[in-house]
Amino acid sequence: MTYRASDTRYDSMQYRRTGRSGLMLPAISLGLWQNFGGTRDYPSAFEILSYAFDHGVTHFDLANNYGPPPGAAEELFGDVMARDFRPYRDELIISSKAGWEMWPGPYGDRGSRKYLIASCEQSLKRMGLDYVDIFYSHRFDPSTPLEETMGALAQLHRQGKALYVGISSYPEAQTREAYRILGEMGVPLLIHQPSYSIINRWIEDDHTIDACGDLGVGVIPFSPLAQGILSGKYSKGKAGTRAGEKNSSISARALAPKVLAAVDALGKVARARRQTMSQLALAWVLRRPEVTSALIGVRTLDQLKDCLGALDNLSFTPKELTAIDAAVKGAMLDNRPGD
Q1: Residue range 209-227, pLDDT digits in tens
Q2: Pairing mode, strands 15-17 and 24-26
Q3: Residue 239 pLDDT more than 50?
Q4: Number of separate domains in the chain
Q5: What is the tens place of the pLDDT at every residue in 71-111?
Q6: Would strands 294-296 and 93-98 be described as parallel, antiparallel, or unpaired?
Q7: DSSP per residue over 146-203, as a string?
Q8: Could you list the residue range(s) of the whole structural domain that residue 189 is in?
Q9: 49 located within any domain
């Protein structure tokens, strides 16, 4: 049966302008980081992706190394594009990135021109695309001149392989410098993708989010639920969760008693707002005017539906914001980018 997108797909989603650009993104975007790898079959992937698009999620975020194994998420998304999403290509924002280790040797990691150009070409082949809408430098590489990394992004932009370019996990000083270098090359810096959540506020402490506001660069936070911690599911233990898996990316520090106690306290605020924990966390991130979209990752359709429910209440009273700050005092996670 051929997929036909819902006629009401744009009725309930909110769209926000990305910085000072003309590009609008949905308030909720879907990332395919750890949940769309080799263990995900086509039917379950399509169930989530099609429901997202049917409800106005037009932005799907990937990277070369998303899986596991690396590359698997782009391959799976490429299958969805070829079999079901192809008629809607011009309604979709598809992004990818390069900056973390992808293949062995000195040319498969970090920020060199050789790596970024080769990686973008590989990503396009895996997804069966002529271009991506956004291509990111996935992390700042202090061992490579920033002019070289930004030059690679500018080259991809000029070649039409990336309609827009962005950066991810860049501190404030490097964000401003990347913006300046790209500007001199005649290429605007569209967007910054940092980690940001109620318990991880490094972009506030570092003033990176203020820099983006000053420069007119959009912000799309990843891990707004702190890898599921802010959903409240870890208060019942790790069983059946990502943290319970071998080689989990969730640190023991993130599951410390003081953090889980803070999450419990946040639950009281969420219940008073008649929201789930996930909805509270997403609304909190989206409260900032600099934030264009919140980037979520989900394992199940129910999780996606829950997250989309955040759009029903995005406003906060000063009293609620004070209660949130009090709940997490002493339990903050400093996840600022490092080498």
Answers
A1: 999 999 999 999 999 999 9
A2: antiparallel
A3: no
A4: 1
A5: 999 999 999 999 999 999 999 999 999 999 999 999 999 99
A6: unpaired
A7: HHHHHHHHHHHHHTTSEEEEEEES--HHHHHHHHHHHHHTT--EEEEE-B-BTTB-HH
A8: 15-228+285-311
A9: yes
Count Cβ neighbours within 10 Å for each residue of 63-95 and write b for 16 or more, e otherwise: bbbbbeebbbbbbbbbbbbeebbeeeeeeebbb
Could you tell me the pTM of the whole model? 0.94
Average pLDDT of the chain, as a whole number? 94
Please tell me the number of Cα atoms within 13 Å of 311 on its side-chain side: 19
**CA-to-CA separations, 62 to 94, 95, 116, in angstroms, rounded:** 8, 6, 15
267/101 Cα distance (integer angstroms): 37
Specify if 243 maps to a domain.
Answer: no
Rounded mean pLDDT, 304-327: 98
- Give the domain CATH number at 109: 3.20.20.100
Q: Is residue 320 part of a domain?
A: no
Residue 330 lies in a domain: no
